[in-house]
């Protein structure tokens, strides 16, 4: 008798290994009633609603093409490099003093509140200058 090919010798074992999960999965029952209602939702009747009348769009024809060549102006000037550097060093020294313990938490919070108050006052002053 002719011997089986090496791959065919393992075939029954492979089939058995693959059949075990299928057999185990068949042991679990499937419940159709999972607690969720299968009834159709009730119909909701919606009546007419008052909506604003649509306004026709009008084409604004100025006779020229749009241009973006005009220089853009900012609402306010940006801070300069010198002012940014001084603010940065001031805040860095404040953070370093807090980290090293040279400054108490209360003093740190007082200075932060002072800087925030200054920023808020500066913002309102700048807004009033822009409005005028």
- What string gives the helices and strands in order? HHHH
Helix count, DSSP H or I runs of 4 or more residues: 4
SS content category: mainly alpha
> In angstroms, what is the radius of gyration?
39 Å
**Gross geometry:** extended
Averaged pLDDT? 79
Q: What does the main sheet amount to?
A: none
Notes on the structure:
The chain is mostly helical and 132 residues long. It has a domain at 104-132. Helices cover 51% and strands 0% of the residues. It contains 4 helices and no strands.
List keywords for this structure.
mainly alpha, 4 helices, 0% strand, 132 residues, extended
How would you concisely characterize the structure shown here?
This protein is mainly alpha-helical and 132 residues long.
Write the layout of secondary structure elements.
Layout (H helix, E strand, L loop, with lengths): L5 H4 L1 H16 L54 H20 L4 H27 L1
């Amino acid at each position: 008798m002719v011997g089986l090919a090496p791959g065919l010798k393992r075939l029954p074992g492979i089939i058995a290994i693959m059949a075990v999960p299928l057999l185990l999965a068949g042991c679990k029952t499937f419940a159709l009633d999972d607690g969720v209602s299968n009834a159709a939702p009730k119909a909701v009747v919606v009546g007419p609603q008052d909506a604003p009348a649509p306004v026709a769009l009008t084409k604004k024809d100025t006779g020229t093409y749009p241009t973006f060549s005009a220089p853009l102006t900012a609402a306010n000037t940006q801070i300069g490099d010198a002012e940014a550097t001084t603010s940065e060093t001031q805040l860095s020294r404040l953070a370093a003093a807090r980290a090293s313990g040279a400054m108490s938490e209360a003093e740190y919070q007082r200075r932060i509140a002072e800087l925030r108050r200054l920023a808020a006052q500066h913002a309102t002053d700048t807004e009033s200058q822009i409005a005028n």
